[in-house]
Structure formats: C-alpha cells, structure tokens
Design goal:
Number of domains of chain B: 1
Strand content of chain B: under 5%
Number of domains of chain A: 2
Oligomer: heterodimer
CATH class of chain B: Mainly Alpha
Number of helices of chain A: 11
Number of helices of chain B: 14
Order of helices and strands of chain A: HHHHHHHHHHH
Strand order of the largest sheet of chain B: 1-2
Low-confidence stretches of chain A: none
CATH topology of chain B: MetI-like fold
Low-confidence stretches of chain B: none
CATH class of the largest domain in chain A: Mainly Alpha
Shape of chain B: globular
CATH superfamily of chain B: MetI-like
Structural class of chain A: mainly alpha
Strand content of chain A: under 5%
Helix content of chain A: over 70%
CATH architecture of the largest domain in chain A: Orthogonal Bundle
C-alpha cells in the first residue's frame, strides 16, 4: 500500500473542510445566546424553544410532512410502474414520448416546471393548496424513482418470475411475491429519494402552493431573504441532524442486507 | 390488456401533468397580456365553434419573443446566466478534480466512507446549504471577522450580494455532481497503464498529464454538464447570495411572473431558456451514450 501523497491528502482535507465547515458553523451558532448571529455570546438553547412556539413554522412543517409522505408514496407506485414499462414493455406506440417525459423533468429547470404546473392548475380552475403541491411533487419525483428502479430491473433475472408463473402464480402474484421483494431495496431508496426531494423543494412548491398551504422551505426562504436569523439556524440544525441520522442508518441497513444476501448466495452455492 | 393498464396510468399522469402544462406555457408565450382573469388573451372559446378556433390561432403571435430581443434586461440576463454557469462549472471542476483524484488514490478501506462524506451534504436541504453561506460572506460575517482578526485586511470585503458569492454557492452545492462521475472514471482506470508510462521514463506529472487526465475526460465532461445544466436556470442561489446586482434568468422569470404578473413574457422567457438548454442536454446524452458503448 502506497501512502497518500502530500498533495492528495491536502486536497481531500481542504475539500472536506469546504463541504462541512459552513454547516458546522450553522450548527454551532444555533446555540448562540445572542440575537446577533455573528457574535458569540454564550451557550443557549433558547432559539429551539422559540422555534417550538412558532405556530407558523409548525404549521408549515406539518404541511411539508403531509406533502412529502403523500407525494413520495404516489411517486413510488407510479415510478415503479413506469420503470416496469421502460424495462419490460418493449415497443408500443408513443414509447419515445414516454421515455422523453421520464427523463425531461430530471434536467428541466425548476422555475419552468413550477411555472407550467401553475398555469395548468389555474387553467383548469384547481385551487392551489396541499393537493396541487402533492400533484406537482409526484410528477417530478416519479421520474427519479423510475430511474432508480429501472437500473435495478435491468439486472433482474426474469427466469425467477417465469418460474413463479409456471408454478401457478398469476402475473400480479408473481410480481408481488417474487419480483417486488427482490427489487425492494431499489424501491425503498426510490421512496427515500422522492421523500427528500419533496422536503427540500422550494421553487416548484412556491409556484404551486396557495395561501391556504405553505411549506417549510417557502417559510424558510421568506425568512432568510431578510438575513441570517438564529431561529433558522436552529431549524437547520434539526433538519441536518434528521438527514444525517437517516442517511447513516439507511446505509448501515443496506450494507447489512448486502452482506446477508452474499452469505445466502454462498450458502446456496454450496448446497 | 394488463400491459395496457400498466402503461396507461403513468403515461396519462405524465401527459396531463408534464406534457400538457408545457404546451400551455408554449401557448401563453404566444399570447398577449390582458387585463383579465387569467391575464392573457386570446382564450380558446370552443362554444363559438370553428370561428372560435380560428380567432384563437389568429390571436397568437411572436410579439413576446420580439420583446425579449428589444429589452436589454432579458438578453443581458441570458448572457450573464451563461457566464455565471460557465465560470462556476470551471471552478467546480478545479475544486472537484483534485478531490476525486485524491479519493481514487486513497486506501481502499477509506473510500466508502469518503464517498458517504461527499454524498451526505447533498442530501441535506439545498436551501440550508445556500443559506449557510449568508452568515459567512456578509460584511460582518465570519469570513470577514476572521480575516480582520488576522490583520490580513483592514476593511471588510464585499462578497455577499456580488457574483463571487453566487460562484461560491454553485461550487458548494453542486460539488458532489462533479466529484462522483470523475471519481467513477478514475476508479476504473487501469493502474498498470501508469506504471508502464513511468517505466518508459515519464515523470509522475507527465504520466498523469498524458495518461490519467485524458482517460478521465468523459467523467469530467459528464460532471461539467451535471453542474452547468442546473446552474443555468438556478433561482435560489442568485436570489439569496447574488443580491439585486446579479442577473440570472431563473430569477428574472420568477420575478416577471410573481412581481410583474406578466405571464406571457414569463412564458416566453421559459421557452427561450429551454431552447438554450437543449444544446447542452443533447451533448450530455451523446457523451453518456459514447461512454456506455465504450463500456460494452
């Protein structure tokens, strides 16, 4: 094993400092007692208390959670169906348009997606609120889900499902009992991706949200436009913690699943 | 029949919520501003029958697009978005390449953890990551305090609300997009090629320049497009870090729609932005296609 060169070690260290220092500062200053965010005045958790008493933020957080759960679940169902179509359906009329519509939202600027959906909702007279945000988020995140799931489906061994069909399963049973459990990790990571995309989205939500429903990013955005605030620092710290814990748990779980599968495969190979 | 049902549901969804909205944008971009609800004309009046359809198509024109070329604001905004996107893509490459290279050369057992460290910030809120720079770059911010404290500067630097802050924001938020494809390309690289180059008398650096760098080209191209494409239409970064001086087309579109309530012009801005984006998207697809074919 060659030791890392001086140059590589430096560029990695500086790179990771660049990636993490801003967030670290945010976390540290969320515990600052002073209202002046850039001057340290002792440790305090009072901004977390303020945040918990802030009705507007709590309402927005609740709306955001509802939207994220609903849209990511819908997106996972639709995205998995779309992935099955892309990988297995072969040729059908309008296939080019279909795959175009799956990939286009991935590169479409958010301002355009948001604008076009808003114009649609106004055109058909749908009042803007939770429903319209869910529809908007489902539409763009189903595309991400279908990309994740179809990359797993490509390597799926079709003979397993054929065996289930030979043994008397219906098509749906074969899918639910054989295929779905095998592709489950991809479906779950698709759901998680859709969930974080929805939690995170500001631009599309600001176009499709109405006065009756505001999401957390919209609230945060209108607050930070006026400058840095200790309450937003506290909120950011909570969100960073949730994401960090979630991502690390997910990666540990999937690592364990991979080890288990490898062991099972080896055992099956010996038998 | 079952196949039909499987196709029909996602297909209908995407047609109704992606394709049709896009056609609406196209249509409104050809309409005129009107003091009505919704604020544009003509409206398709099917009750008037054939005459209604004729009036509708007769009322569409390219006036908004001509307007975009005559008013300085728009073409300046497109140009400045392009400039900002190009510069920040190159800066991201300069920061990302050494990191990807370092990761590819790091001991094998560290790599998964490093990979995780690169992806982790990417999954935290985009808005928060951009916001975190506001406190650092403002005139009384941490960076200025630090530099003043060291005595390196005597006056606080104006960074927030300038294009420099936008560059920093884009490099920071899109860095993982650059690192991952370059790392993937470098990781695949056959180490014996470098040894051969060194055996044949190349210095370390020449070997890097003649062997490693060209072989990681497709990763760099992919990374650059993955940064450039979203950066061009960026809205959050210029509005939080760029101030009123920094023109970017995503911000202009947003303001045209919400502040000026000029829907036809906002739609025309969107259509032109898409036309500009088609070029890098097609080039990106080609690069990926070539890569796949080379892999087979």
């Amino acid at each position: 094993m060659r030791r890392m060169s001086w140059f590589n070690a430096t560029s990695l260290t500086l790179g990771f400092v660049f990636l993490y220092l801003p967030m670290l500062i945010l976390v540290i200053f969320s515990f600052n007692a002073s209202k002046l965010v850039t001057i340290w005045a002792g440790f305090s958790t009072k901004w977390y208390g303020e945040l918990m008493r802030n009705e507007a933020f709590l309402d927005a957080a609740w709306v955001t959670a509802k939207v994220a759960v609903a849209s990511s679940t819908l997106a996972t169902v639709l995205g998995t169906m779309a992935a099955l179509v892309l990988v297995r359906a072969g040729r059908f009329p309008g296939r080019t348009l279909f795959s175009g519509m799956i990939y286009a939202p991935l590169v479409m600027p958010e301002v355009i997606t948001g604008l076009s959906l808003l114009l649609l909702f106004i055109g058909i007279g749908l009042d803007r609120g939770v429903l319209t945000i869910v529809l908007a988020h489902t539409t763009f995140s189903m595309c991400y889900v279908s990309v994740v799931v179809s990359s797993r489906l490509v390597t799926f061994d079709d003979s397993l499902e054929e065996a289930a069909l030979d043994l008397g399963c219906s098509r749906l049973e074969a899918f639910l009992l054989v295929t779905l459990p095998i592709i489950a990790p991809a479906v779950i990571s698709g759901w998680l991706l859709a969930f974080t995309l929805s939690l995170d989205d500001l631009v599309i939500a600001s176009f499709t949200a109405g006065p009756s429903a505001t999401t957390l990013p919209i609230k945060v955005f209108s607050a930070v436009r006026l400058g840095v605030s200790p309450e937003i620092n506290a909120l950011s710290t909570i969100m960073i913690t949730i994401v960090a814990v979630g991502v690390i748990t997910a990666s540990l779980v999937s690592k364990r699943a991979a080890v288990k599968r490898r062991n099972e495969e080896q055992a099956a190979g010996r038998a | 029949m079952r196949k039909f049902a499987l196709i029909a549901l996602p297909y209908t969804w995407l047609v109704l919520l992606f394709f049709v909205p896009f056609l609406i944008v196209l249509k409104i971009s050809l309409s005129d501003l009107a003091l009505a609800r919704p604020p544009y004309a003509p409206q398709l009046d099917l009750s008037a029958g054939w005459q209604g359809i004729k009036d509708f198509f007769g009322g569409l024109d390219f006036e908004n697009f001509i307007w975009l070329t005559t008013d300085d604001l728009y073409w300046k905004a497109y140009l400045s978005s392009l400039k900002i996107a190009v510069i920040s893509t190159l800066l991201t490459l300069m920061v990302g390449y050494p990191m990807a290279y370092g990761m590819a050369k790091a001991p094998e057992e560290w790599r998964p953890a490093m990979m995780m460290l690169v992806i982790l910030p990417f999954s935290t809120s985009f808005l928060i990551r951009v916001y975190s720079w506001m406190g650092i770059l403002s005139t009384e911010g941490y960076l200025n305090q630090f530099l003043l404290g060291l005595g390196l500067i005597s006056e606080p630097l104006m960074i927030l609300n300038t294009p420099v802050a936008v560059y920093i924001g884009i490099v920071y938020t899109y860095l993982p997009f650059m690192i991952l494809p370059i790392y993937a390309a470098l990781d695949k690289l056959d180490g014996s090629l470098l040894e051969a180059a060194e055996d044949l008398g190349c210095s370390r650096f020449t070997a890097f320049w003649l062997v490693t760098f060209p072989l990681s080209r497709s990763g760099m191209i992919a990374g650059c497009f993955l940064v450039f494409i979203p950066a061009l239409g960026e809205f959050v970064i210029p509005s939080l870090l760029g101030g009123s001086e920094t023109l970017m087309i995503g911000k202009v579109l947003y303001e045209e729609f919400f502040n000026n309530r000029d829907w036809p012009v906002a739609s025309a801005v969107a259509v032109v932005l898409l036309l500009i984006l088609i070029i890098p998207i097609v080039l990106f697809q080609r690069n990926q296609q070539k890569e796949r074919e080379a892999g087979q």
